[in-house]
Amino acid sequence: MHAPDATLDGAPATSRPTPVWLRDLPASLVTFLVAMPLSMGIALASGAPIMAGLISAAIGGLVVGALSGVPLQVSGAAAGLAVMVFTQIERFGFRTVLAIVVAAGAIQLALGFGKVARVTLAISPAVIHGMLAGIGVQIFLAQLHVVLGGRPQSSALRNVAELPRQVENVHGPAMLLGLLTIGVLVAWPAVERLVGPRLKALPGPLVAVCLGTLAALHWGGDVPRVTVPHDWRSAFTLPVLPPAAQLGGAIVAAVSLAVVASAESLLSAIATDKMHAGPRADLDRELVAQGVGNMLAGLCGGLPVTGVIVRSTANISAGARTRLSTMLHGLWTVVFVTQLAFVLNRIPLSVLAGLLCVVGARLVSPAHIREMKKHRQLAIYLLTLGGVVGINLLAGIGIGIAAAVAQLLAKLAHVEIVSSHEGPRWHIVVKGSLTFLAVPKLSGALAAVPPQAHVDLDLDVEVMDHAAWESIHAWRANHEKTGGTVDMDRIHEIWSAADRGARAGVPAA
Fold this sequence. Notes:
By secondary structure, this protein is α/β, with parallel strands linked by helices. It folds into 2 domains: about 20-405, no CATH class; about 415-505, 2-Layer Sandwich (Transcription Regulator spoIIAA), CATH 3.30.750. About 65% of the residues lie in helices and about 10% in strands. α19 links the parallel β5 (about 455-465) and β6. α7 (about 170-195) crosses α14 (about 350-365). The protein is elongated.
């Protein structure tokens, strides 16, 4: 008799594989435990009802998870949109913002069906990371007031200006609970390393919120707490259209929200793709799913939905294999909200604010700063960050994109021209990007060559456009008419092909 064949991991070939749902079920519970406190905290940072974040978590799991083009990505309310939503609620009111969320979802739906999902990825990574860092700074400054027992102001600069007064009027119990939460979250990675893999399944945010809540119950301190309606059906809020005077601003807000939410979701999708070896992301389908999710979230009273890398990472790390895990995490949210709302109402607001302070601080990533410095895009990153913090989110994005375009134009305009000669023989070397922006400098260098000289022209360029080619071709033709000669050396294929065409009488493309 022959022994049974063995699989690659050493298990007998006759052993039954573990059912997929046995991996997805515990993964969904871990994801839910990570998502629940974050959803409530993001609602707090957005100036929206706490239930709005939980509604988005449920929709992100059950609806977006079912339709998603990235099966292991987890969607819900995202910290990256908290500042934008807070500003819009201040301007339009919560119910009108719900209509803006519906409109943003419809735009995403159109983009997805139009198969243009990758267009939203054209924004420079320096702008995206700078935007997220700016949002992180704003969240930290705003929630620091809540940790101290106060209320956040309407802008980052006002939060900084009001901070001394808030420190003078600090609420002791709230501050202690907030600092306890921050301390647990900061220390948790070290605790995980100390204890080992057994602690990996226990999310740090959940531990911090539970410890903060238990401490508040033990001390009996009078601190503001989460307010979740006991009748969950009363949390559903219908959107309201803006008045005619605000319609233009609301349309701009919807487009902005759609672009930022789409970029964040698709960047998260690409990052999620790198974490597993399963099916690859279908970005257009993902954008359709996000659009459906946002339209439903706006109609039900929820915050905007995006793909969230923190929850997606937790989902994959916990062993998820299919979209069932993402969907079940949404189901657990519904069960908890409908059956255990009284538990949520015991959570102090300063505990959630402490959680958000850490989330905001982590959005300013030293790794991203090093990466931007390495690729010489730190200035774009810092300008975007400064614009988001000092002005507003849209201004920051606009400043960042303008800086990225300016840097690109500067790179395209950069050309190095070195001329040397011995008697009638000239040697000209051109390096860099030879585009229409460099034509004036190139023409000046070529004009210095005297008639009847022999010229060795060395074009060692990364890119050359038609305007530059025409300029060189016209100069060469005129120079040869005056009795001079021109030899081209080390020329790229694009030049060679165009030159052969010109000599044969074929106009350049």
